[in-house]
Design goal:
Helix content: 40-55%
Shape: elongated
Strand order of the largest sheet: 3-2-4
Structural class: alpha+beta
Largest sheet: 3 strands, antiparallel
Radius of gyration: 17 Å
Distance between the termini: 13 Å
Order of helices and strands: EHEEEHHHHE
């Protein structure tokens, strides 16, 4: 069983989420529990382990794998703004849906609640992902 710092896992996940359009991925070492970011688009200061391509590493999941995109927005909407569910569902049928979703939340005074909901879901789903892959967290 591997032990890793949850803050390292979360930082790697968030960094790659921000760099979503770039060829960037984070890996956790299944031997050392360290997290490493690999990118062909960004120059990173971290020196990567020599065995990053051949050693026992597991790629951290992305938003889609953890259902933290549109699915989470709909979950929040159905729980807290059920009267707006059809409107929000319509947002995601065209590009820019997430932006329109956040504008609606801002108008309804729910933007801070959304950010807290999203943060909690991200952390709990990442913790579950680690448990599912035999990674103990400290």
């Amino acid at each position: 069983m591997t032990t890793a710092k949850f803050t390292d896992i979360l930082d790697g996940y968030e960094f790659c989420s921000l760099a979503d359009l770039m060829d960037t991925q984070a890996f956790v070492s299944l031997e050392r529990g360290t997290v490493h970011i690999v990118s062909s688009d960004l120059e990173l200061e971290e020196e990567l382990p020599e065995d990053i391509e051949t050693g026992p590493y597991l790629a951290l999941p992305g938003k889609r794998e953890l259902d933290l995109g549109q699915e989470l927005a709909m979950e929040f909407t159905e729980k807290y703004l059920s009267s707006s569910a059809e409107t929000v569902r319509g947002f995601f049928h065209r590009p820019g849906g997430y932006g329109r979703f956040k504008e609606l939340l801002d108008r309804k005074g729910q933007l801070d609640a959304w950010f807290e909901f999203e943060r909690f879901a991200t952390e709990s789903r990442l913790r579950q992902w680690c448990a599912d892959h035999g990674i103990d967290l400290m």
